[in-house]
Write a structure and sequence with these properties.
alpha/beta; seven-stranded mixed beta sheet; globular; binds nicotinamide-adenine-dinucleotide; five-stranded mixed beta sheet
Length: about 425
């Protein structure tokens, strides 16, 4: 799958959904293409005195429902087709969550890891100068993504504000707290996923107290997910893994201990009171809930028949292949698809925009309650649609999201 052009993949998903919804050809055609995109060249003075020219992109896939929203990636392998695909997926994710936003994405081809802080700052500011006319709080609001950080968001917001001649905190999200960031952003993705797991468990009649959980990918999203599953619901986390391998303990893995161990040794393997387990074995464990939180394409046609979990909650993007999806559906495994399960991040980003406009900041409890409400409503819209059409949860999520975008385009008179 890593070889597959992501935009071709995104288009195939739209095509499949267009068939289910019986979309008119011209409506389908609009959805297969970005509404607008900007390609920029960015000359940047490097620390050694030379000037390097970087290529950057910003794509607004569809803004029928509101300003575009989506991160900016700094990556050496960035391509316009990756940005287009990610912008399309943002369009569906925002629509699914009922956010009054469209989908966008940006990127710069660069090796951020090999650049100094000053070079990164000059590149970030150059990007904003180049896309200034294209973005804005009521037009297109970027955010962090791979290799972009709150510090980079602060420079970008500052550059935009300087050009505008006034503070424009709402031009970008994922900012540091003291510059208009939102509380509750750091664990928002995992927390949002927990709310969907809770609703799924209710539907399946699964008691979450002492329900067993395996987490593949003990990183940002995975660590918060394990901690929250334990603290919110009393689940028992029996296995966790990272790129080096996994650890299992049927009696439950102490979360504080394993986090400290990972911090000290960079991995979870050989954590005290656990046995080693491979990443492949972890996926096939007989657990109540499996949380993929690492890479794409880990559940395939090969291992899908062996998945024993009752719920697969996809915190990572694209962990399940389309063939595996059908197998899991036939076997009664309840999949909470990625762009529903991991939508907590963009939802709290939207809350950040709202707070910036309001100039009034919420406390953590308010953020959690509002996130819960959005995720719960979105979960049930997907689940109801899945039952209504007799389709799997992923296809149902597409149906809900695409329907909403089409409705907005029709009401605006675009199609
Ligand atoms: P991260 O880099 O913090 O964590 C990834 C974890 O996966 C690391 O522990 C790494 O060791 C592990 N890993 C890497 N290769 C592995 C392998 N082959 N087998 C098992 N584990 C492996 O990244 P993250 O921010 O936690 O993101 C994880 C996934 O969640 C990605 O797909 C990302 O797109 C998605 N996601 C994250 C967020 C967020 O807010 N962090 C939001 C939406 C989606």
């Amino acid at each position: 799958m890593s070889m597959q052009n992501p935009f071709e993949m995104a288009r195939k998903q739209i095509d499949a959904c267009a068939k289910i919804l019986n979309l008119e050809p011209h409506v389908h055609e609009v959805l297969r293409n970005p509404m607008s995109e900007l390609h920029v060249s960015l000359p940047v003075r490097m620390d050694d005195g030379s000037t390097k020219v970087f290529q950057g992109f910003r794509v607004q896939y569809n803004d029928a429902r509101g300003p575009a929203k989506g991160g900016i990636r700094f990556h050496p392998d960035e391509t316009i087709d990756t940005v287009r695909a990610l912008a399309a997926w943002m369009t569906w994710k925002c629509a699914l969550l009922g956010l009054p936003l469209g989908g966008g994405k940006g990127g710069i081809i660069c090796n951020a890891k090999g650049m100094s802080k000053n070079e990164l700052e000059r590149l970030s500011r150059a990007y904003v100068r180049a896309v200034y006319q294209f973005v804005g709080p009521d037009k297109d609001v970027p955010a962090p993504d791979v290799y972009t950080t709150p510090a980079i968001m602060a420079w970008m917001m500052d550059e935009y504000s300087k050009i505008a001649g006034r503070n424009q905190f709402g031009v970008i999200t994922g900012k540091p707290l003291c510059l208009g960031g939102s509380v509750g952003r750091s664990d928002a993705t995992a927390r949002g996923g927990m709310y969907t797991i809770r609703e799924a468990a209710k539907e399946l009649g699964l008691n979450l107290k002492n329900a067993t959980v395996a987490v593949q990918g003990f990183g940002n999203a995975g660590i918060y997910a394990a901690q929250l599953a334990e603290s919110l619901f009393g689940c028992k986390i029996i296995a966790v893994s990272d790129s080096k391998g996994g650890a299992i303990c049927e009696e439950g893995i102490n979360q504080e201990g394993v986090c400290q161990f990972k911090q000290d040794t960079t991995s979870v393997i050989n954590c005290p009171n656990t046995r080693s387990i491979s990443n492949e074995e972890l996926l096939e464990l007989d657990v109540d809930i499996l949380i993929p939180a690492a890479l794409e394409n880990v559940i395939t046609a090969e291992n899908a028949p062996k998945i024993k979990a009752k719920i697969v909650a996809e915190l990572s993007n694209g962990p399940t292949s389309p063939e595996a999806d059908d197998i899991l559906y036939d076997n009664g495994v309840h999949v909470i698809p990625d762009f529903l399960c991991n939508a907590g991040g963009v939802t709290v980003s939207y809350f950040e925009m709202v707070q910036n406009m309001y100039m009034y900041y919420w406390d953590e409890k308010t953020v959690h309650e509002r996130l819960d409400s959005k995720m719960t409503i979105a979960y049930h819209s997907v689940s109801d649609t899945s039952k209504k059409y007799g389709i799997n949860m992923r296809k149902a999520a597409y149906v809900v999201a695409v329907n909403r975008v089409v409705e907005a385009m029709k009401l605006r008179g675009w199609v």
